[in-house]
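User: Here's a chain of 348 residues. Predict its fold as tokens.
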Amino acid sequence: MNQQPNSQQNFESDNSLFRKSQIGQAGDNLSQIQNINIFSFFKLSIKLDPKYTLAYKGLGDVCYEQGEYDQAIADYSSAIKLDPKYAYAYNGRGYAYYEKGEYDLAIADYNSAIKLDSKFTYAYNNRGRAYTAKGENDLAIADYSSAIKLDSKFTYAYNLRGLAYSRKGENDQAIADYSSAIKLDSKFTYAYIGRGYAYYGKGEYDFAIADYSAAIKLDSKSTFAYNLRGRAYYEKEEYDFAIADYSAAIKLDPKYTYAYNNRGDAYSEKGEYDFAIADYSSAIKLNPKDTDAYKKLGDAYKNKGSKDQAIRNFQKVIELTKNKNNPNKIELSLKAEAEKEIQSLNRE
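Assistant: Prediction complete.
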């Protein structure tokens, strides 16, 4: 019987890419140099005119791009203090709060931006992102829909609405939105990845593989696409293909915990327990609190006939779960399974 990968956990981790802001990130030396020059320009502008609202907004944008979110918030706040009706400053501050994980504050700022400008497309889109991050998918969908109504060619809004539908398990709607995004931009890698995941959710693994392959063709360094294609191959019981994809993901990112866990699953299905043990151990080294990896490691030792080592790993699952304040359903289920395994092994 196949191991059951934690698909939602894998997808949410892989799709941190959907959190990308519309402002854009500084990613190369040229961008850094340009930001330094722009930063100096805005600083000088404020020195010459301390009430130059646009300069504070500009400083906020530069600080945001450099990952200095607290300073960005301070600069946007200065702009808002000078002009309480500056919708773009509220939107920018919302970006910064979002990146800090302060979603309620982000939503409050997007609300202000929308109240000031009811046709502010990006503010709807960005508020949707904050609702998505909070797991409030219906509210997110409503905001993405508002953004699309204002701009029917807003590729990112289709893509993000697809993600929200996918998280609700409404895979047909998700596929429709991802397809709209791809129609608007045939090189939109993340839309292929998202649609592939929706097909995966429907059990249509060949379609999923086709989309992940399209994503890899567009971006040969997409660890997400390799990992997810590997899982689709895994579900088709094509374990060698799955292992090849997980290995590609690990080569690209040697700290990719999920790929080690998933490759361990494929090796376990092939009965190659030593390889599986090595992969689960690598996952645990990267994340010492990974109860799922400890449980699977215990299973691999059990299947190999190493009773004592199996029990030690099952006990670790129980210990980690007990030490958590609010263990989730998956962790509680793993704990119950580990307790049963220990009882069974002790009876042998």
